[in-house]
Amino acid sequence: MMNDKSLDIETAEGNAQPPHLNFESSFPSENTQVQTNTSEQRSAYQWYVVIICMVAYILSFVDRQILSLMIEPIKQDLMLSDTQFSLLQGLAFSLFYAFMGVPIAALADKKSRIKIISAGIAFWSLATAACGLSKNFIQMFLARLGVGAGEAALSPAFYSIVADLFPKDKLGRALGVYAIGAFIGSGLAFLIGGYVIGLLKDVNFVVLPVIGEIKTWQLTFMIVGLPGVLLALLMILTVREPERKGLKVGEDGQIVKASFKNSVAFIKTHKKTFFCHFIGFSFYTMMLYSLLGWAPAFYMRNHGLDASQTGYILGIIILVANTAGALFCGWLIDFFSKRGYSDAAIRTGMIGCAALIIPSVLFTQVENMQLSFALIFVAMFFSTFPIPASAAATQMLTPNQLRAQVSAKFLLTSNLIALGIGTTAVALITDKYFENTVMVGNSISIVNAIAGVLGVFLLYKGCQYYRDSMKTENLSKS
Questions:
Q1: pLDDT by residue (tens digit) across 23-40?
Q2: DSSP, res 207
Q3: Four-way CATH pick for 48-242+258-472: 3.40.50.1370, 1.20.58.100, 3.30.40.10, 1.20.1250.20
Q4: What is the CA radius of gyration of the chain?
C-alpha cells in the first residue's frame, strides 16, 4: 500500500503536464485584454477631466490677470491711483472669490461638482466681458466682484473631483498639470494683452453695434471673456460626475455629513496643522501675486518698456518658468510620497518657498535688465509651488465629503491675505511710504522678503503637525 507522498509522485509522473504549470496563463486572455483596454480608457478619461479643468483654469487666469498689463490706460481713463487700481486687482476680485467659495463648496460636497464648475465658468466669463463696459471705478469694481464670484466655483470642486480620480502617489502630478493652467493663463494674458495693445496702439477707440464707442482696453476684456461660455457648454456635455471615494465614518458607524459645522470641526481637530498650512501657504502665495500683479508696472516704470514689450517678455517667462515649476512641484510631491513621507506636500511647499526668497527680492534691485529677467525667471519657477502643494496637502488629509469645503476655507484665507492684502500692501508702500510710483520695485522686495520668511517658518513647523494629523486619521505611510 502506498502512502500519500508516493501517490502524489505517481500522479505527477503520470501527467503529461505538471500540475503546477498552466500554459494558457502564458498568453493574455480575452478578459485580460478587455481589462487592459478598460484601464487605458479610464486613465485617458481621468486625464481628460484634468485637462478640461486646466483649460478652465487657464481662462480664469487670463480673465483675472489681463488687468495688470493694462494698468496705465485704465488708470488714465478711469482716473485711478495705484491704491484704487490695487483694489480692482486684489480686493474686488478676492472679496467674492474668497467668500463665495464657502457656500459654493458646501454645494460641491453634496451636489454635482461638474454642473457647479460649468455654471461658474459661464458666470465669470460674462463678468469679464462686463469689465469692458465699465465707465468708472464703481462699475469696474462690481464687474470684478462678479469675476471673483464665478471663479470661486472652480478650484474647490476640482480638488474634490481629482482626489476621487487618482491615487495618492499620482495626485501630485494631476494637481501639477491643473496648476500649470494658472501660469499658462497668466502668460497668455500678457501675450494676448501685449498683442492686442500693440495691434490697437494707434486706435483710441472702436465702435461696436448697440454698445457704441469703447476704448481699446475695454475691447480686450470682451475678447478674452466670451470664449469661456463655450468651454462651460463643452464641460457639461462631456464630463460626468465621478463616484465619491474616501468618505469619513463617525464613531457611530454613520457617514459624516457634508456640513459646514463638520468641516469646521475637522479643521479644529487639526488646528495646528491647518493654521500652519493656511497661513504658511498664504504668505507663500502672497509672493506669487506680488510678482504677477506688479512686475509689469516695475518694468514699464523702471526700464522704459511699453505695455506690449512687457507683455511679450513676461508672457514667455511665465509660460516657460511657471509651467515647468508647477510640473516639477507635482513630481516632487509624488517623489516624496512614494518614499513614505506623509508630509510630502507641505515639505515640497517649504522647499519652494525657501528657494523663492532671494530671486524674488533681488530682481527689482539689480540695474541690468537682462539680469533682472534672469532672476525673475528663477522666481517665477519657484512661485508656482503653493498651488499644487497646498491642494495636495488638503486632499490627502481631508475626507471626501469635506474636501471642497476645507479647500474653500483655505482659498478664503489665502486670497484675503495673499491677493487682498499682499497686492494692496505693495501699492500702499509705494503711495504712502515712498510717495513715488517708480519705487514700486522696492515695495515688491519688501513684501516678498517679509512674506517669504514667515512662509518658510510656518511650513517648517507645519511638517511635524501634518505628520501627526495623518497618523491621527490613519492615513500615514510611516
A1: 444 445 555 555 556 666
A2: E
A3: 1.20.1250.20
A4: 26
